[in-house]
């Protein structure tokens, strides 16, 4: 198992428009706890799309924004990431990038990208980052 994981602490999802068994979109508000290169907690909001019953295509997609507060390799602060996530019966996978200019504290100037993958409340992540002073 990877040393870089995050665990869901809460998940609140509500349908915004559409019927439960038909094409619809929903808003999900979640909180996560991170361990590994990132140590801390986060708040995340996703806009989820569900194709509905009978859709024979691939997984669903969800863009989202997440604010992570804590440390990266011991440097403290916060930053925001933008997600592009796919999900379906086999689990979740996706990519994310740091929103430019979102770093605070010792993480001011952070940039980078990563991936997520998993099929349970605890998932693995990667994070390739650089720190430069703004």
Describe this structure in words.
The chain has no helices and 8 strands. By secondary structure, it is an all-beta fold. The chain has a single domain (5-131), classed as AOC barrel-like, CATH 2.40.350. It has an 8-stranded antiparallel barrel with strand order 1-2-3-4-5-6-7-8. Strand 7 (110-118) and strand 8 (122-131) form a beta hairpin. The N and C termini lie far apart (35 Å). The model has no long low-confidence stretch (mean pLDDT 90).
Kindly identify the CATH topology: AOC barrel-like
Count of domains = 1
How are strands sequenced across the largest beta sheet? 1-2-3-4-5-6-7-8
**Head-to-tail CA distance between termini:** 35 Å
Task: Give me the strand/helix succession.
Answer: EEEEEEEE
Summarize the amount of helix as a percent range: under 10%
Structural class: mainly beta
**Beta-strand residue fraction:** over 45%
How does the overall form come out from the CA principal axes? elongated
pLDDT averaged residue by residue: 90
By DSSP, the count of extended strands is: 8
Second rung of CATH, namely the architecture: Beta Barrel
Q: Helical region count?
A: 0
Low-pLDDT residue intervals, each spanning 5 or more residues: none
Radius of gyration: 16 Å
| CATH C-level label | Mainly Beta
Largest sheet: 8 strands, antiparallel, barrel
What do we call the CATH homologous superfamily? Answer: SO1590-like
């Amino acid at each position: 198992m990877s040393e870089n994981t995050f665990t869901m602490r809460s998940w609140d999802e509500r349908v915004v428009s559409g019927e439960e068994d038909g094409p619809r979109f929903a808003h999900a508000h979640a909180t996560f706890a991170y361990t590994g290169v990132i140590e801390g907690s986060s708040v995340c909001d996703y806009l989820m799309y569900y194709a509905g019953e009978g859709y024979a295509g691939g997984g669903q997609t969800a863009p989202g924004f997440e604010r992570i507060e804590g440390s990266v390799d011991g440097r403290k602060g916060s930053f925001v990431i933008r997600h592009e996530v796919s999900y379906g019966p086999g689990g979740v996978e996706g990519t994310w990038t740091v929103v430019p200019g979102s770093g605070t504290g010792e993480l001011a100037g952070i940039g980078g990208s990563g991936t997520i993958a998993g099929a349970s409340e605890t998932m693995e992540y990667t994070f390739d980052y650089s720190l430069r002073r703004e």
